[in-house]
Amino acid sequence: MSLANMRDLILRAKEERRAVGAFSVSSIDMILGVVAAAEELNTPVILQVAESRLDVSPLRVLGAAMRAAAEQARVPVAVHLDHGVTFGCIRQALDCGFTSVMFDGSRLPLEENIARTREVIAMARPYGAAVEAEIGSVGKTESGEAAPAVCADPAEGIRFARETGVDALAVAIGNAHGVYVGSPNLRFEVLEEMRRGCDTPFVLHGGTGISDDDFRRAIALGMGKINIATATFIAAYQAAQESSDYFDMSRRMTAAARGVAQRHIPIFGLAGQKEA
Ligand code: 13P
């Protein structure tokens, strides 16, 4: 049984100066592809699904499959709710056995984001689940709707981390979900400033399209979890278009998800391979 807690995975990654890849999945094909890549590279991984995607992949079905895959994996796998917005959905994920949940209060005023994140932490505690929150606002929603990218204010971020004690903090530094128009211009100085005031592991959203060098720089500044979604969805869609029948499509989609995870995981660093 290899179902793991996200908190443990990220803390260990931080010690080893790497980040854990968190791959968004929407079907059994994708789940199998991501887990196969992690097993091949012998490295922990996070499977995640966002609340906004549950109309296509209901939690009671997809969540159960994510959990089953994690339990049977040969490497530690955490199962995470990405961008949880409603308390009802967060509770459902916890009841499904998710080992971590994100509360996305990034569009709320700071005080309210702090208060509601604390409520989610209290809700998750009896389950032993970890909690991720967001400060500043990552551009575009996870489901592709337009939304402005608001860079985090470091002082507010430090205050947020201290007052909530959250396990992982998504820090918006000019990153955005979906496909970037041009190269993203990440504000690393925000991370540097936040790192001086708090020790909380950070999370980088909007991983699709970020360069290898920027990934490495972000990891060196404390990004312990990196989210990849669009790259997998694009690759799976392309694979589906090239397929000859349903089962060929399913196999190709698994291979596509596996390829995306295989490409990113080594950039984020492999477990047990700490650089000197
Ligand atoms: P991308 O879709 O840009 O890879 O972002 C993933 C993400 O941050 C999910 O929350």
SS class? alpha/beta
Q: H/E element string?
A: HEHEHEHEHEHEHEHEHH
C-alpha end-to-end distance? 32 Å
How much β-strand is present in the residues? 15-25%
Small ligands present: 1,3-dihydroxyacetonephosphate
Biggest β-sheet: strands ordered side by side in the sheet? 1-2-3-4-5-6-7-8
Average residue pLDDT:
95
Sequence stretches where pLDDT stays below 50 over 5 or more residues: none
- Morphology: globular
Task: Give the beta-strand count.
Answer: 8
Output the radius of gyration.
Answer: 17 Å
Percent helix: 40-55%
Quaternary form: single chain
Largest sheet: 8 strands, parallel, barrel
User: Can you count the helices?
Assistant: 10
Q: Can you walk through the features of this model?
A:
The chain is an alpha/beta fold and 276 residues long. 46% of the residues lie in helices and 15% in strands. The protein has an eight-stranded parallel beta barrel, surrounded by nine helices. α2 (28-40) crosses α10 (246-268), α5 runs parallel beside α6 and α9 packs antiparallel against α10. The mean pLDDT is 95. 1,3-dihydroxyacetonephosphate (13P) binds at residues 24, 50, 82-83, 142, 177-178, 205-208, 227-231.
Which helices and strands appear, and what pairs or packs with what?
Layout: H1 6-15, E1 20-24, H2 28-40, E2 45-50, H3 59-72, E3 77-84, H4 87-95, E4 100-103, H5 110-124, E5 130-135, H6 154-164, E6 168-171, H7 188-197, E7 202-204, H8 212-220, E8 223-228, H9 230-241, H10 246-268
Parallel strand pairs: 1-2, 1-8, 2-3, 3-4, 4-5, 5-6, 6-7, 7-8
Helix pairs in contact: 2-3, 2-10, 5-6, 6-7, 9-10
The protein binds 1,3-dihydroxyacetonephosphate (13P).
